[in-house]
Amino acid sequence: MKYCVKIEVSLKPGHTDPEGNTTQRLLKELGYNVDSVSVSKIYNVQIESQNSREAKIKAEEMAKRLLANPTKDNYTIKVEEQK
Amino acid sequence: MKLEEVRVCVMRVGGTNCDIETARAFKELGIQAEIRHLNELVKNRNLLDYHVLVFPGGFSYGDYVRAGVIFARRLYAKLGRELKTFVENNRPILGICNGFQVLVEEGLLPGFELFSAYPEASLAANIPQGYNCRWIYLKHESKGNCIFTRRIPQGKVLYVPVAHSEGRFLFPKEKEEQFLERLYEEDMLVFRYCDKFGNYAEGQYPTNPNGSFHDIAGICNSQGTIFGLMPHPERALYWWQQPDWTRRSSKVQYADGKLFFDGLLDYLLKKF
Amino acid sequence: MSLSHLFIRVNTNFNIHEIDTQNATDEQLQQLSNELGLGLNLQEMKQIQAYFKTQKRNPTDVELQILGQTWSEHCCHKTFKGKIKMGDKEINSLFKTYIAKATKELNPKWCLSVFEDNAGIISFDKDYAIAAKVETHNHPSAVEPFGGAATGVGGVIRDILGVWADPIACTNVLGFGPLDYDYTKLPSGVKHPKYVYMGVTAGIGAYGNNMGIPTVNGAIYFDESYTGNVVVYCGCIGLLPLKKFKKEAKPDHIIVVAGGKTGRDGIHGVTFASAELTEKSEEVSRPAVQIADPIEEEKVKRALIEIRDRELASAITDLGGGGMSSAVGETAERYGCGATVDLDKVPLKYSGLAPWEIYLSESQERMLITVPPENLEDVLDIFKKEDVEATAVGKLTKDRRLRLRFFDVTVAELDMELLFSSTTSTKTASWIAPEIAEPTFSVPKDLTGTLLQLLSTPNIASKESVIRTYDHEVKGNTALKPLHGEYAGPNDAAVIKPVDNCWKGIVISCGMNPAYGKIDPYWMAASAIDEAIRNNLAVGGRRIALLDNFVWGNPEKPERLGSLVKACEACYDFATAFKTPFISGKDSLYNESPLGPVTPTLLITAIGVVPDIRSVVSMDLKAPNNLIYLVGNTYPELGGSEYYKLHGYIGKSVPQVRKAEAKKNFKVITQAIDAGLIKACHDLSEGGLAVAVAEMALAGGYGAELNLKKVVGAGLKRDDFVLFSESNSRFLVEVSEQDRQAFEVLTKWKGCSLIGKVSRNPKLVINGLSGSVVVEASLEKLRESWKQTLSGGV
User: Fold this and answer.
1) Is residue C57 one of the residues assigned to a domain?
2) What does the DSSP assignment read for B94-136?
3) Range of C321's domain?
4) What are the residue ranges spanned by the domains of chain A?
5) pLDDT 10s digits, C214-229
6) Distance (Å) from the C-alpha of residue B126 to the closest C-alpha of chain A?
7) Choosing among B133, B195, B235, B249, which should be mutated to test the C contact, i.e. which has the most C CBs within 10 A?
């Protein structure tokens, strides 16, 4: 089966997000009353897998081994079957 | 072993770009440094022919995902076993700027477990945000553990440049104090950002150029053999590289950056 | 009217058409040009029609696209190389009549290759040469600031690689609209200057930093007209071992394309650059926007340097505007060959590209080299080691024909002569001096306040917040940096020490005075040349070569073209007077937007050398009690000055350049630097004497006391004019008391005077013509005014 896995990597709460803060300042300057902005990255991964559970386990590994640094990053995973 | 027999490998991949000036710094010490692409080392499987391994600055693999992480993972996947042996032999490893990021992502720094499976620290996006190229002051903190800086007296203030956008040294929030304590206990804290009089930056920009925790600019592992730092000593090697040399009346041959490499000589001559 | 009946689908399993030009009316020919985006006029279309008549067949879409590209303004510079009628004068090629003529007449031995290769090449020492090139990337940056600027840098770096040089430094000069521009006044399709400013500066930093090439010199200039027409000049300096400068391609040598894959990127970028920006540009020009990949280019660079050092290739060029079409055509033309290319071999990003798209694609980070067949394997191995894709796609041939094949079907076959035979048109030019009066206003009471205001005007204010985002010292060879010392003073030029074990340096500076052009483009060009040269001399540079980069409006409009002619006249006059040859240049015309044309802007880049970087001089005051001299006469020349602008005027009294005086000043600066007499030197430009001395003081951390009565020149009756006049060819020089005599022996003529001294008191004090204090400000106050405007960037 082919799966589309979305791995979203974002900063753990409590960590300063310089890019988000800068963007917020700019949006405010443009007249939007924005409380906060945080930036996260989404990796769209196409993967061949037995089932969605296995796809998710593989995605967890990817996040741990490469995509997220546990010191500062959280990650969430969404698995969708590819049509 | 004679100095001229020492082999230094300055390792590069696509996007590494401070390899030539880094090799030049070793040449000033009288050591021949070879610039080698990771692909060459993988092909020849000869990492262990070298006595010193250096990760220079740059944007390895475009700093995609996180600065240094792709280099670190690829190196581990291709030459993990050799690298492990290299580390266990206590052969010196130096990481400058992007190289420091590689060592942190590789789990070698702080390296509380010598070679950690996951990074125990991170070099996060600068605060204030963005790339910053400027000269800063560093205070030498090591009591002698770091083999690279042994010739530098503790407390000495040095003048070198930084140039990066991801250099904010961080520990996991919940372990911050505990890890910091270990740095002190095991003499792993090597450099902190300070002003020209030696007062710590205390997080003040631009004295601390990136918002690093505890003004940390460089650390070594507990063996003292692996050393990483954000500033670029190789760009502060000669007196004419300093941003204010035209104001200085005495023109000594070298600037402060040379000191970062000198200590290595003693270690190498003793070890090999 | 539909043109579809003119398109004949060729019976192949890929997308190609013949176009029935023989049966097309004139009107249809012009329509064809528009529909296919060829950008050709009727005369040119008819020339094509005639050619294919002799060939007894119809052109393919590939062939039409190739001709559209090769004959475009961007690639063959119709304006600069065409005929111009101005009054009763007829100019046969602006380029030959003024720019190249200056170099030809001067004909210095140290100019090794000018206007011929991708970059100008001059000698450095017995082993090395310097390559220099400056490009513009205005249109792409207007549409997508980050990507446009980044790919601009990438492109000019490839120009340097395209002469086998190792890129060692980048420069950039940028022009933006006012950052506080009223949002509600922006026409749709025009982006806000602040957005453009942030995107462009980030793009430039990203490319240079990622590639590890220091960005060492530049300028940022603000002008109302740049709101709709952002100006982005990207420059690159390279170093090449003389022995390795190979130009020896022959028939049967293999054509190799290396680097990024080919996609639909930037197709018709060339014709796009030659057309005016309209409201629709954003929509229609998206394909012209590129994503930059500096890491790819870094890898390509590594491979090329190794190929160069092992002498494995016979020719090189970059794939820039016009893509393979331009690169293959020009390479074959240069070596008197033809070429055969198999377009199906070109590695693609995705399938479905038509042959003409592959050939014209402007995908970034690609280079073309020709390789003798016996070296091909080694060359491909080198690329492989660097993780770079490289493919043999064709070869040079003996006959002078360009043949393109796609899966063994010939899709284009043209005579090389036709490609390089575009017709020259005659354009009409006229120039009438604008009617601007000299303003009349009385001397402001608070000149200290005026100075502080001037220091914080965007054109004068510190650009530190931008410069720090550029790595200006990677490679560790930047001996004089753009920001000097603790207070980040603005050095006049950058100095690179490119070779280990050799003290010789390369000096890089620039000059640009668009405001003067609003009064007189001749004096604008003269001033830009003077400024670039004096910036270079001020740090110790000499043996200066110039690069010219014109950014102008639509040359079809006679008055725009007229001002271009005047600027070119000045280029010839002053390049010959100062013995500073032009070695490379580029023009970007058609810079027009819904807000109007760009202010005609000439950037002059100066490349000098300094025999020993240890004698280089910076601009910061060095020690109390040293003497301050003003070298050069001051005149009441405030037309186009920052001072007049502050009061809302342009004025008429544009600064002129007096050749004899200027040459005297230039000579004495070099002599005094060589004799070690100069402690600090700063050129006088925007804001004149007052701004120059303020910058020297705030950078050095020492105060200064000046006396305006001592300033020499003519017509100096007002304190404000003496303080803020922008007369050319002037320098402020710091000399120690013990060198006083030696310095005064050198400067015994009337155009140089001792006007003050350095003081320990951290204060700038200037005494006016009547003897009373007219300016008094603490260094802290000066620094604050100078740094606040653009600090923090956002």
Assistant:
1) yes
2) EEETHHHHHHHHTT-SS-TTSS-SS-SSEEEPPSS-S-EEEEE
3) 252-397
4) 2-81
5) 999 999 999 999 999 9
6) 7
7) B133
By annotation, the residues of B acting in catalysis are 97, 232, 234
Average pLDDT of C744-751? 87
Tell me if B122 and A72 make a contact (CB, 8 A cut-off).
yes
> What is the DSSP-derived secondary structure letter of residue C767?
E
Give the model's confidence band at C79: pLDDT under 50 very low, under 70 low, under 90 confident, else very high: confident
Q: Give the dihedral of Cα atoms A7, A12, A15, A17; nearest 10 deg.
A: 20
Find the CATH number of the domain harbouring C67. 1.10.8
Cα–Cα distance measured from residue C20 to residue C16, given in angstroms and rounded to the nearest whole number:
13
CATH value at residue B223: 3.40.50.880
**C531 within domain boundaries:** no
- Residues of B with CB below 8 A from C474's CB? 17-18, 21, 57, 163, 235
Contact C212 B18 (CB under 8 A): yes
Chain C CB within 8 Å of residue B57 CB? yes
pLDDT at res. C288: 56
- Asked if residue B110 has a cis previous peptide bond (ω within 30° of 0), the answer is yes
Active-site residue C74, yes or no?
yes
Query: What is the pLDDT confidence band of residue C276, given thresholds at 50, 70 and 90?
Result: low
Confidence category of residue C400, pLDDT binned at 50, 70, 90: very high
Could you give the number of structural domains in chain B?
1
Q: If we measure between CA atoms, which residue out of B123, B153, B127, B125 comes closest to residue B140? A: B153
Contacts of B172 in chain A (CB under 8 A): 70-72
For residues C307 and C309, what is the distance between their CA atoms, to the nearest angstrom?
6
* Total-model pTM: 0.94
Domain termination residue (choose one: C38, C54, C76): C76
Q: Which helix (H) or strand (E) holds C138?
A: helix C138-143
Residues in C closer than 8 angstroms to A25, CB to CB, are 794
Whether C28 and C6 have beta carbons less than 8 Å apart is answered as yes
CB C119 within 8 A of CB C238: yes
Q: If you average pLDDT over each of C287-291, C454-458, C744-748, which comes out highest? A: C454-458
Residue ending a domain, choose from C358, C380, C397: C397
CATH code (residue C365): 3.90.650.10
Alpha carbons C221 and B157: distance in angstroms, whole number: 39
Which pair of tokens denotes residue B145?
Answer: 């553990």
Chains that touch A (3 or more CB pairs under 8 A): B, C
CB C602 within 8 A of CB C512: yes
At residue B272 the predicted structure's pLDDT band, cuts being 50, 70 and 90, is confident
Residue C192 lies in a domain: no
- Hey, which residues 765-794 in chain C have their CB within 8 Å of chain A? 794
Query: Which residue segment(s) compose the domain that B161 sits in?
Result: 3-271
A41's enclosing H/E stretch is strand A40-48
Determine the 3-state secondary structure of C44 from DSSP: helix
What residue in A sits closest to C183 (Cα-Cα)? A30
Q: What's the structural domain count of chain C?
A: 2
- Classify domain A2-81 at the CATH class level: alpha beta
Give backbone dihedrals phi and psi of C525, rounded to 5 degrees, phi first: -65, -40
Q: Which of A8-22, B170-184, C173-187, C430-444 has the lowest mean pLDDT?
A: A8-22
C327 is a domain residue = yes
Of B59, B232, B240, Cβ closest to residue C295: B59
